[in-house]
Amino acid sequence: MSKGKIKVIDREGKLHELEAEKGLVLMEIIRDADLPIEAACGGCAACATCHVYVDNDWKSKLNKIEDEEESMLDQAFNVKENSRLSCQIEYNDDLDGIVVTLAPE
Q1: 24 φ, ψ to 5°?
Q2: Sheet architecture: strand order including 83-85
Q3: Which of 24, 41, 46, 53 has its CA 20 to 30 A from that of 74?
Q4: Could you give the CA distance from residue 29 to residue 5 in angstroms, rounded to a whole number?
């Protein structure tokens, strides 16, 4: 299986089910669906404008947070325990159906 779905809750609370392709990062999938995610740095973990909250049921399926992502989140606003940068989460079969919420701008 190389295509699946991700579920994105936008800043107004609306749920969007997006087709996801293996190998893309969540930021690219969200951006390509024309949802309001800035992704100013283009996926280099250098800006935190792709900040999302990962549904708690999915946190354990993600790769461990790397130092540069953690450092960027330390500078972001509205950070929670389940905060991640969507540019650092590569979609794979284990993440089919993952639910993320766009963090406030």
Answers
A1: -85, 155
A2: 15-21, 3-9, 99-102, 51-54, 83-85
A3: 24
A4: 10
